[in-house]
Amino acid sequence: MPVKVFGLPTHILLLHVAVAGVPLVCLTTIAVAARPKWRARFGIANAVFAMVMVGVTYATQVAGQQLYNHAPYLQKLAAQHRGLGLTLVWFVAAVAVFAIALVVVSRAGYAEHHAATVTVAALAIAASAICVVQCIRVGDSGARAVWGNINVSGSARLGADPVGAGAGVPAALNVL
């Protein structure tokens, strides 16, 4: 995977898909788990969407690791973000597993009150909620790594410039 695409770090481009897609797939999984009629109608599409988001999250993680290795000064700035980011794919994978399990349980002919259906639905809702929290934690740590030293209160000092990126430009945006 290239470090840059169209002059921008690949990680920056991919993370926008993950930032929008991961919470969306979690919300759709919660909706499909909570509504049996939606499970029958949208369950397969939701499971496919969840699997796609596992791939997108993994690609974002790989691109982030390449960016982290390419710019040595990021190893201080983004260490926490990297640590959290390496775990996100597992949370998204758990949501995908439960989205698939919802389809399997629904197609197996269990009634809505059946213990297996209720258990899988409850676990899907819990996994989705936890995944959203983890996604927020990862995103927040990344934003703090890039923008944490930026002062937007109107003073002349716009932020730290650890590698000579230029006045007011976050260093993490000018790595390549």
UniProtKB/TrEMBL annotation:
InterPro entries (alphabetical): DUF2231_TM (IPR019251)
Chain ranges of the DUF2231 domain: 7-148
UniProt keyword annotation of Transmembrane helix present: yes
Superkingdom of the organism of origin: Bacteria
Keywords for the protein's UniProt record, in alphabetical order: Membrane, Transmembrane, Transmembrane helix
Bilayer-crossing regions: 12-32, 44-64, 84-105
Protein name: DUF2231 domain-containing protein
The species this protein was found in: Actinocrinis puniceicyclus
